[in-house]
Amino acid sequence: SIPRPTVRRLSLYLREAESLLQAGHRTVSSSGLATSLAVTDAQVRRDLGHLGQKGRAGIGYRLAPLITRLRRALAVDRSRNVLIVGAGRIGRALMAYPRFDQRGFRIVAVVDADTSLVGRAIDGHVVQSVDQIETIVVDGDIEIGIVAVPEADARAVAQRLAACGISGLLNFAPCRLNVDVPVIDVDLSSSLEELAWAMAEPG
Amino acid sequence: SIPRPTVRRLSLYLREAESLLQAGHRTVSSSGLATSLAVTDAQVRRDLGHLGQKGRAGIGYRLAPLITRLRRALAVDRSRNVLIVGAGRIGRALMAYPRFDQRGFRIVAVVDADTSLVGRAIDGHVVQSVDQIETIVVDGDIEIGIVAVPEADARAVAQRLAACGISGLLNFAPCRLNVDVPVIDVDLSSSLEELAWAMAEPG
Ligand SMILES: NC(=O)c1ccc[n+]([C@@H]2O[C@H](COP(=O)([O-])OP(=O)(O)OC[C@H]3O[C@@H](n4cnc5c(N)ncnc54)[C@H](O)[C@@H]3O)[C@@H](O)[C@H]2O)c1
Ligand SMILES: NC(=O)c1ccc[n+]([C@@H]2O[C@H](COP(=O)([O-])OP(=O)(O)OC[C@H]3O[C@@H](n4cnc5c(N)ncnc54)[C@H](O)[C@@H]3O)[C@@H](O)[C@H]2O)c1
Q1: pLDDT class for B145, splitting at 50, 70, 90?
Q2: From the CB of B146, is ligand 2 less than 6 Å away?
Q3: Can you name the residues that pair with A104 across neighbouring β-strands?
Q4: Statement to judge: residues B92 and B165 lie in one domain
Q5: Residue A34 belongs to a domain with what CATH number?
Q6: What integer is the mean pLDDT of B10-36?
Q7: Residue B203's pLDDT is what?
Q8: Residue of B36, B80, B93 with shortest CB distance to A196
């Protein structure tokens, strides 16, 4: 099993490899990956070595097979259906972002408890009622739920999603969801803290 | 200098310690911190040992001094002024979030290039013109800029912010900003990738 910090690096290598391929490159060196991602050359070689990828001297790694291998390691080599719960500010910022689809996370439904939002089309998605969660998750073959509701409602929403068989949750609410499925908490103030620390670092 | 994965853990310990203190606790054990954050007990003791914090057998760590020490290590022991560039979907989700202020990141100004937004009050912030960036950063003693504009505009915005002395950038646009100040890139699709990997893990 891959440790979490390694997963973060693999995700960065994948993004970089995909943008190089899109720009017309066919290979990349470990030092090329290292400099653009602020990791050491040796770290890149160790991470990719674990995946059975060996760079060839003078040529580096061929991008197309590297991308395929990274997508498999990160378990994103197939698309997954996603439901957003909460069509508020965060929900709308996510609904409008085309890159999720490109990376294999297809937003297929959006629900809200506010009846005045239900039935409205926002950025190409028609908001449905939160009462339909069970039917939507099962009929829509939805694997991931995004919790974008106020803190007071988040646990109840999460428990409902877990109860109808969702496989994982991305949580924006600033509280722990206490459910049996994997949860990734998004906390943008941690990103600001990481920035404050980077600003305080010498050099 | 603290390695970046350690910074992420320290930020989690700080959040946990603060919510325990708010709930009326006065101490926490290393295993208490470890279980709620999915790290090992030994990792907690090593991390906090680096900061000179020693838990006392049977009692653990006293929360108040632990919080003070963590805030100092993360360089968040004082408040910083923040400017949001882009009052669109992402910008509005950030403007409305009260926790940034609680964690020492005060959103003091919001600017946009869209003249129909300039002068409008949104969630307690009056949107100003992007033409005023230089004056706002200098007069407002702003240290951090949040880049919440479309990808095509992001680099120019970042260069302008760096040129007028901003100390760090939080970037939402899906591109590298290439500026001389520290940048943290927020990429929510990486969080989804981390979730997909956690869903694929056994156990
Ligand atoms: N982690 C971060 O850095 C960060 C940043 C901003 C906001 N947030 C959090 O994200 C969450 C969403 O924030 P927002 O600004 O989008 O809030 P918002 O108020 O703009 O939107 C919330 C939406 O959820 C809907 N809702 C409420 N209860 C519901 C329920 N039981 N089922 C379905 N829908 C329900 C509301 O009708 C509303 O449309 C909040 O918990 C907020 O604290 C986190
Ligand atoms: N990283 C992620 O996971 C993620 C998720 C969603 C969106 N995004 C990105 O975040 C950014 C913002 O997205 P959004 O949905 O809020 O976009 P949006 O279109 O809703 O808002 C963008 C705002 O920026 C303003 N703007 C444009 N050029 C400007 C300039 N030069 N100076 C000042 N303001 C300017 C626009 O007038 C608009 O109000 C985009 O780059 C988007 O790709 C990232």
Answers
A1: very high
A2: no
A3: none
A4: yes
A5: 1.10.10.10
A6: 90
A7: 58
A8: B80
